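Assemble and predict.
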Amino acid sequence: MTEEVKAPKKEKIPRQAMPEQEPKVRARNFEEVPYGYTPELAMKEAERCIQCKDPRCRQGCPVEIEIPAFIKCIKEGDFEGAIRKLWEKNSLPAVCGRVCPQEVQCEGMCIVGKKDAPVAIGNLERFAADYQREKGKQILPPKADPTGKKVAVVGAGPAGLTVAGDLIQKGHEITIFEALHGPGGVLLYGIPEFRLPKAIVAQECNFLERMGAKIEVNSVIGRSETVDELLERFDAVFLGVGAGLPVFLKIPGEHYIGVYSANEYLTRSNLMKAYEFPAYDTPIVKGKNVATFGGGNVAMDGARTALRLGADHSYIIYRRSEEELPARGAEVHHAKEEGVEFLLLSNPLRFLGDEASGRLTGVECLKMELGEPDASGRRRPVPIPGSEFVVEIDTAVISIGSGSNPLLTKSTPGLNLNKWGYIVADPKTGKTMKPRVWAGGDIVTGSATVILAMGAGRMASNSIHDFLTYGW
Amino acid sequence: MFEIVERQEMAQGTIISNWIKAPKIAAKAKPGQFVILRANETGERIPLTMADTDPAKGLINIIYMVVGKSTALFKTLQVGQGYLDVIGPLGQPTHLEKVGKVICVGGGTGIAVLHPITRGLKQMGNYVYSVIGARSKDLLILEDKMKAASDELMICTDDGTYGHKGFVTDKLRETLQKDKDIKLAVCIGPVPMMKFCCKVTEEFGVKTLVSLNPIMVDGTGMCGCCRVSVGGKMQFACVDGPEFEGHQVDWDELNLRLRSYTAEEKVSFDQFKAHAPGCSCSR
């Protein structure tokens, strides 16, 4: 008689951490913080996925990636299969693996995460994309037969690149118009090198070009050509131009040298590579004491950039408490590890400067305390009378959000704008009030995330495809 | 690449004129608008108001003074070579209309910006007085073109080597005193010149347009680097300008912000000069 052999209980694998640079070291360089998974680590992490029949992770993904399927490929060592699965739904996996807020999307819904740490879906997505780029064969996703239809995509940011990637696979002819001298939008000018290497952005854009999309840089639609002129040459137009208008604090002294909008500070550093000045010609004020105003992801990028530019002190000045910081937990964590100092419940009143040199010397702030919840549900910060204090700073980065840039919208009759100047578009299709024109991303919603813009791009591309195929 | 098809050195090589192949921009550009140029991959984005266009040939004309690394680098570009990026047309065009009599005042390379506006105002049927100035005769540009675009042209040099000895403000004041029918002044040049021209025209209550040249990055209203105070309000020169009502401009603030990178500009320029053309290193 043989004893029934019970299968040994599967050993529980802990969530595999991604190796990263030491905080003290990385705070002084612009190289990427995490190194990425090795194939072994990736396969081990992939084993943690229980391949749910009714996967919740997929519901949490704005572009509905077949998450269990691509993870299964990784588990089996079929890395090419993994990237093909990802490409079915996402043209920018190397980007999304890095900058998506997975904790509130796919990983936030992961069943494994109910009792344990969720499967590291973002890390695995990043691994599949990086492996393909660095070690994989030059492969491309399949492409439908040419339809003869032409689509203009205005803005080469996350929304526009998604629309382009989707529609090119469906056989349409795509031309992307980008105002700056390189494609990527916020991926290029906004998100710093240490979070998203620009070589990766360039490769993702190059991937679209290899698929057959045309990218015309230096094209400021609204000035160099109008949307109405594009409509004469194209069957459909997608507007994904981003929010693109800096918001200032509107306090005295914002003209002093050393006061930047986050857009300018990050554009100088990222797009123009001012951190390599004078090898690159664009300068930036390399402050010793830098304050970044605001508490979102962009503010964290600003404060962490300041450290890398050589700051002794990099402060986040935010008028609410830590709990209300809108930035991702991971970003706040990274910033703290690197030495960013948080001056919370502090509201700037005015900038101080040296009148002769015009340079910023400090900021006067007021202490706040939390009162009753406001319309947003967050507790309203209330000033504490007489609590003024001065922080000595030579650089200020204002990162309190952005507004709608009117350059394109004003030059486009027939677009419906809301009271903040954003384009009114159908939330299910991205259709605007102007025939044959779709819109999506920050120019519709106001400042949001890369992946939400990509989700909007996905909806619009489906609608554009229907229109080009069936006429509605 | 945006190819240079014609290149001319003016004012003893301190000012350069380029005609650049940029058909899309040439087709759209109007007087008063600018382009942003970048020489190469490591280059800065430099805004320059167009001095002229030739839509039929698909060309635009820029005229710039060599003042630092970037413009010195531009100067090295010869016919057949070109700029990596040219973006435009950007900014609001000049609102050209018939008002009767106008006076156009230009100094230094501001004359290059002033010329198409002057020509446009004359074509509209205005009677055009023009005053142009430079430090000395050798540095004066576009005299012939300005003469053709004006009904009366006055010339000033600081050192008296040509025309009136003194500043353009002298001739501006003289003309405004002589002819009370002047309805509009357009003054374009270095910040101190524009500031003092505005003081003069303010005395006479004559509306004055100026073209501002703050430091810029993107040129599409995205970064706010070029913010200027006009009538106490924050304006972006790249999208709201570059032309503004001169009496409303906070000149001291503009002047201050133009000095943002004086130290860095020197480092950059010194390094460039140390590596003269022909140097085998990559700089």
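Chain B has a mean pLDDT of 94.
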